[in-house]
């Protein structure tokens, strides 16, 4: 029974790695698949995953058609706006954009990452403000500790205000 569970777990794990089934491999439009992968900013590693999945069924992907589609798809991915959205969401960039599109994409990505970093820090500061206020409202806090917490609250509030101003400026520069 234990061996059967281990075998089942291994099969499920392998099935999760296979990105295509037999029918999909046999009837694939490799240009369209590449177009979709490029439009999503996926690396060429994705073709390797598809190649391994289809090898189980004796199907070899058309790498040239896939690459042509992916290159076309990258044209819609590798834009300033897409880079900005990716960076602002805190996502990683895998360096898939070719020049000259990479220049615009990376500029947008860096601007978005700047916003992401500011917003992340503001969230941390607001969390610290909440904790500090909770500490101030606890009964039995010594006057010295209360003074330290009040001073910390002032510092955090000032930092939050500065971060909000930086975020507003970053939004206006987008």
Description of the molecule:
With 174 residues, the protein is mainly alpha-helical. The chain has 2 domains: 1-77, no CATH class; 80-174. Helix content is 77%, strand content 0%. It has helices spanning 2-17, 22-26, 30-39, 45-55, 63-77, 80-88, 101-137, 143-173. α7 (101-137) runs antiparallel to α8. The chain is elongated and about 75 Å long.
Summarize the structure.
It is built from 8 helices and no strands. It has 174 residues and is mainly alpha-helical.
Which labels suit this protein?
mainly alpha, 77% helix, 8 helices, disordered N terminus, elongated, 174 residues
Strand content: under 5%
- SSE order, one letter for each helix or strand: HHHHHHHH
Instruction: Give the tally of β-strands.
Output: 0
Instruction: Compute the number of helices.
Output: 8
Task: Provide the domain count.
Answer: 2
Question: C-alpha Rg, in Å?
Answer: 25 Å
Helix content: over 70%
Distance between the termini: 59 Å
Shape: elongated
Q: Taking all residues together, what is the mean pLDDT?
A: 88
Spans of at least 5 consecutive residues whose pLDDT stays below 50 are: 1-18
Largest sheet composition: none
Query: Helix/strand/pairing class, anyone?
Result: mainly alpha
Topology, element by element:
Elements: H1 2-17, H2 22-26, H3 30-39, H4 45-55, H5 63-77, H6 80-88, H7 101-137, H8 143-173
Helix pairs in contact: 3-5, 6-7, 7-8
């Amino acid at each position: 029974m234990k061996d059967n569970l281990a075998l089942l777990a291994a099969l499920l794990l392998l099935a999760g790695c296979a990105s295509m089934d037999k029918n999909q491999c046999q009837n694939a439009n490799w240009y369209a698949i590449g177009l979709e992968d490029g439009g999503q900013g996926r690396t060429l590693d994705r073709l390797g995953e598809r190649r391994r999945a289809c090898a189980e069924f004796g199907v070899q992907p058309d790498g040239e058609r896939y690459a042509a589609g992916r290159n076309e798809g990258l044209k819609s991915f590798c834009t300033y706006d897409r880079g900005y959205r990716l960076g602002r969401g805190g996502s990683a960039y895998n360096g898939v954009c070719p020049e000259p599109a990479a220049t615009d994409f990376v500029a947008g990505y860096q601007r978005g990452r700047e916003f992401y970093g500011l917003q992340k820090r503001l969230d941390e500061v607001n969390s610290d403000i909440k904790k500090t206020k909770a500490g101030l409202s606890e009964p039995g806090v010594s006057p010295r500790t209360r003074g330290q917490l009040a001073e910390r609250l002032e510092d955090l509030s000032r930092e939050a205000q500065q971060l909000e101003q930086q975020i507003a400026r970053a939004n206006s520069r987008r």
